[in-house]
Every structure is written in C-alpha cells, then in structure tokens.
Amino acid sequence: MPKIAFDGQKYLAEEGESVLDCLIRHDVSVNYSCRAGVCQSCMMMMKEGTPSEASQKGLKDALKAQNYFLMCSYVAEEDIVITRPGRDFQSMETDVLALDRLNADVLRVRLARPENYSYFPGQFLNLQNPDGVERSYSLASLPDDDDFLELHVRHISGGKVSGWIHSVLKVTNRVSISPATGDCFYTPGQPGQNLLLIGTGTGLAPLYGILRDALRQDHPGEIHLYHGSSTTEGLYLIDELKALDIAHSNVHYHPCVSQGDPPQGVTAGRADQKALEETGKLGGWRIYLCGREDMVKSARQKAFLAGASLKDIYADPFVPAVD
Ligand code: FES
C-alpha cells in the first residue's frame, strides 16, 4: 500500500482511496468542502510524486507547474510527500463592510478588498467560519470599479458557513478568505461573439460580475442573461438587471420562474430550458452556466448538442457540501 507523508507523519492509503479520504480516515485535520474536485479547498502541493491530470483539473497553469493538486481527485499508486499550500496561497483576513438582504434567503456580503487581491469577476473564493469550515462563493464585484469584494450567500438549512453568515456575522467582523480561483470569467475573445448566461439562484452572482465586466470591456455581441428560480420571490437584482437591459441595446435580461403564475415580464419555465429553446442554434456562442449541479450538467450537454464548442462553455456548478 502506498504511503502518504504529510506534516512529519506517514499514512497508509487503501486501494482506490483518495488522498483526502485517507487523511480524513486517519483523523488528520485538513481543509475540504465538495469532495468532487470543484471547490479547490483541498489543494496541496506534492513535493515528491507526480500529480495526475485529473487532480490538477481547473487549477491555474502557475499552480500546476508548482505541483499543486486536489487531494480529493488523487489516488496514490506510489509513495508521495505532500505539504500545505505555500504562503502565497494561504488565507487572508479581511473586514466585513456590509450585509444586505437581496431576498428572503440571499444575503449580499461585501468585504474589504485586501491589498493586491487580484481576481476576475465570476471567479470564486473560499470563506472560512471561526471553526475552520470553508465554503466557496463567487465574486459579483468588478476589480476595476469596486473597492470591495461582493458575494451572494444563500442560507442553506443546517449550513455551517451560510448559517453562520446569516445569523452571526456582523459588519466590522473579520473573516478569512482564500485567493480567488476558477475559470468562469469573461475574456474579450472573438469580437462580436454572442454570450448566453444561464444561472439559477445565487448562480446570478458570477453572472452579474461577468455581464458587467463584458459591458465594461465594450463587448459588441449580444448578451442574453437567463436567471431562474422556482418562485418569483427567489429572483433578485431585478431592477439592476432591467436597468442594464434598457441602457444597453445588446443586453437582454430574462427572469424565469418554474412554479406558479409569474407576474408580467417574468417567463414561466426553467431558465435553462427557456434559454436553449429561445436561442436555438448555438454555434459560435459562448455559454456561461452557473448554479445547481444538475442544471449545469444538463445545460452543458444540450448547449453542445445545439452547436456550442466545448471550449466555449464555462461552467460553475454549485456542489452541495457533504456535511
Ligand atoms: S476540490 Fe477537493 S474538496 Fe473540493
């Protein structure tokens, strides 16, 4: 059985067991959240051994080159030596500037932007509660316009971090955040390329950042944003998005609700289904999908079948934490 050397100890991995599962089984305290290779909370550096392609999926090239990998996506087949991320990638503390309710379940959290904190709108960071539990939240703010970091946090029943944010966290408290990561963000790309943004719930946070970043960079193509919720009360930032729709001839905002009779201006039906029905052929389009994992997976497949190239589909699935 391969040995995993970490923090001066060696742990025997069982056959087929991920490095993360092995350390958890041995009661080693390490960061993790999704256990699915998405949130990047479990990133470590491999000092001896070679990370697999799967264990580096989604990491920036600079991190891959330094042998960073995701423990939940790596099964050791030989002895390895791993260490925690270096100082450059460790969490940092910052102040809570504002907490505002966007609807009954969603809180807008604005944090002071630490000096030299770089990010693209739509990337995500990990926020830690005082017990050291981390969850990922996407960035809705714009680094060139906003001197704060904006997150949209939905209250999850029993959620260790969202429950703490909604019930305990106060303005002026300090919180611990990670550097921003992820590849779901706007790049100028091909001039005139149409953009299709589909999000459910707080999947609007990255899309709101991406939409405004595209406008800030004078994106000339059409931009369609479909935001879905089960009920009208679950929609938010409606006035802000309507204002962008009115101010920019290439922006088209489509709020959708999947249950009940929607009010005027809101479409009945699931956002992903409506978006794919109404746009038809997607050859040459760039697609952003943010929200529930099942929606993202199914919309990704349908967008591909409608002609979108896989390299033009950016996805940010929200994977629920397992505890
Ligand atoms: S990426 Fe490993 S726990 Fe989320």
If you had to describe this structure to a student in words, what would you say it looks like?
- This protein has seven helices and 17 strands.
- With 323 residues, the protein is an alpha/beta fold.
- The protein folds into three domains: 3-87, Ubiquitin-like (UB roll), CATH 3.10.20.30; 91-177, Beta Barrel (Elongation Factor Tu (Ef-tu), domain 3); 195-318, Nucleotide-binding domain of ferredoxin-NADP reductase (FNR) module (Rossmann fold, 3-Layer(aba) Sandwich), CATH 3.40.50.80.
- The strands form three sheets. The chain has a six-stranded antiparallel β-sheet.
- Bound molecules: FE2/S2 (inorganic) cluster.
- FE2/S2 (inorganic) cluster binds next to loops.
Summarize the model shown:
By secondary structure, the chain is of the alpha/beta class. It has seven helices and 17 strands.
Bound ligands: FE2/S2 (inorganic) cluster
CATH superfamily of the largest domain: Nucleotide-binding domain of ferredoxin-NADP reductase (FNR) module
CATH topology (level 3) name of the largest domain: Rossmann fold
Approximately what portion of the residues adopt beta-strand conformation? 25-35%
Organism: hydrothermal vent metagenome
GO molecular function: iron-sulfur cluster binding; oxidoreductase activity
InterPro entries: 2Fe-2S_ferredoxin-like_sf, 2Fe-2S_ferredoxin-type, Beta-grasp_dom_sf, Cbr1-like_FAD-bd_dom, FAD-bd_FR_type, Flavoprot_Pyr_Nucl_cyt_Rdtase, FNR_nucleotide-bd, MRET
Pfam families: FAD_binding_6, Fer2, NAD_binding_1
